[in-house]
Amino acid sequence: MKRTTLSLIACATALAAVTGFAAVSAPDGSGTDTAAPAARLPVERTSLLCPAPSTSDLAETSYTSFTPVTKGADEKGSAALAAAEPADGPGDGKGDDKSGKKGEKDGKAEEPVVRPKAPGTPVTGETSGADTPALIGTAEGGNAPGWTVQQTTEVAAGTGRGLQGVNCAAPDTEFWFPGASTAAGRTDYVHLTNPDDSAAVVDIELYGKDGALKSTVGEGVTVPPHSGESLLLSTLSDVKQTDLTVHVGVRSGRVGAAVQALDDKTGGDWLTAAADPASDLVLPGIPKDATAVRLVLFTPGGTDADLKVRLASPSGLITPAGHETVHVKAGMTTGVDLGEVTRGEAGSLVLTPTDRSVPVVAAVRVVRGKGDEQESAFIPAADPVGARATAADNRAKHTTLALSAPGGTAKVRVTASAGTEGGSTATETYTVKAGTTQNVAAPVPAGLKGSYALTVETVSGGSVHASRMLTGSDDDVASFTVQTLPDDRGTVSVPNAEQDLSVLQQ
Which of 153, 159, 208, 212 lies 20 to 30 angstroms, CA to CA, from 119? Predict the structure, then answer.
């Protein structure tokens, strides 16, 4: 047999192994592509990683798991959230060692705090105190498509007091976090969680207003298998910077990453990874009662970026007075105070190039309240909702859903799941006009008991960006947290191919 034929057979075998069922087909003589369009099928496995929630003895943390019902998904399936093992042996869960790593929980991990149920029904679990470790979760079969876990922590007092929320995220190999800080009064940690059987090696780079900060501590950080690490940013560099961009790059393996930003005066929250560098960015759902908004940007390439700054308000796109454009120097972090930019109305920041397109990452730090009742949260640039996105742990009278259509008018369907302790689903459809942001009265399950999930689907029209704001149980305090709603990637594109072995006989 000729070597060419052997190579083709090996190639065909490899392709079939990757797709599970796809086969190689030869083009017809017409030169026209007659292949059927790719089909979208539910994913069969999803991994999520939740960072260790707090080092405060006053922390009260809830985990809410939800999988939306997905057409065509396997009727069987399972999901589990298990505690990560200690990375450096037993710790006291309260302090830092000399490397700036926060201690993990003593001894062996306890039983999972959440046991996910069948799709369509949310389930929640609770922990308290400073000892809760990072969690590693896997969902398979029918529980995998769109699986979402929300981690929400209330801290009564001290640094980082208030409401801290984060969507447990999938492992990846690169993350950008504009909006971190090593300024006086700030205590920021970067959390890394390794879900795999082998160690991951990670580089952490910090970029300030003058460029990269010199540090060797962040090079080659090893995250042991099935474990969590957290490193204090001020131990990576002794330079005090109001605005920092943190870059996490994985040399080997994969990790989950998030930055916990704690402030002595304005509470704290989680800063999740911004959308990949792009020239057009949307930061959705700035609260209408925001008392301070600070935009932080960074361009990772070697070219400066000039961006037009606009606010998508309920009435359309407007340009903030005095902040029409922003110049971002290559490799340097830029911070801009926008003040009370929303002026009592729902809003989303829309950033577009003034001239040439240069990839940028961005996030905003938002403050609500005044005086001793201030609280802060972060909104990174976010990808569109796409086909579907989900926010878990919604609570009656404490949830605000923001929908933004920066380009064309879009129709959106929002479904409220049953509650964790009872209630029936409810659905509403909304039309979001081009260039606007709407705070919609999201549906609430009839007979609701407990918390519930909101699933957002793009029905037609242009792209939609969304976020959910959750406020604390005390209406007199401005505690809040915001999570963006990018596509849940519950389905994957699989090519439709017909078998034609004649290509192997040439």
Answer: 153
d(CA 193, CA 226): 7
- Dihedral of CA atoms 320, 401, 477, 162 in degrees, nearest 10, equals -100
- CA-CA distance, 213 to 211, in Å (whole number)? 6
Q: Please state the φ and ψ torsions of residue 408, each to the nearest 5 degrees.
A: -100, 160
**Torsion-angle region of residue 231: left (phi > 0), alpha (psi -120 to 50) or beta?**
beta
Identity of residue 238: D
Neighbours of 343 (CB within 10 A): 14
Provide the phi-psi class of 131: left if phi over 0, else alpha when psi is between -120 and 50, else beta. Answer: alpha
Per-residue pLDDT at 506: 52
Helix (H) or strand (E) holding 22: none
CA distance 432 to 385: 13
Mean pLDDT of the chain: 87
Please tell me the distance from the alpha carbon of residue 122 to that of residue 114, in angstroms, as a whole number: 10
**Separation CA 312–CA 440 (nearest Å):** 15
Instruction: Give CA separation, 33 vs 11, 473, 504, in Å.
Output: 21, 58, 19
| pLDDT greater than 50 at residue 102 | no
Q: Identify which of 441, 437, 440, 383 has the alpha carbon closest to the alpha carbon of residue 409.
A: 437
Ordered DSSP codes for 436-478: EEEEE-----EEEES-EEEEEEEEEES--EEEEEEE-S-TTS-
Query: For residue 207, what pLDDT is reported?
Result: 98
Ramachandran quadrant class, 77 (left: phi over 0; alpha: psi -120 to 50; beta: rest): left
342 compared with 4, residue with greater pLDDT: 342
Q: β-strand 148-155 against 305-313: which pairing, if any?
A: unpaired
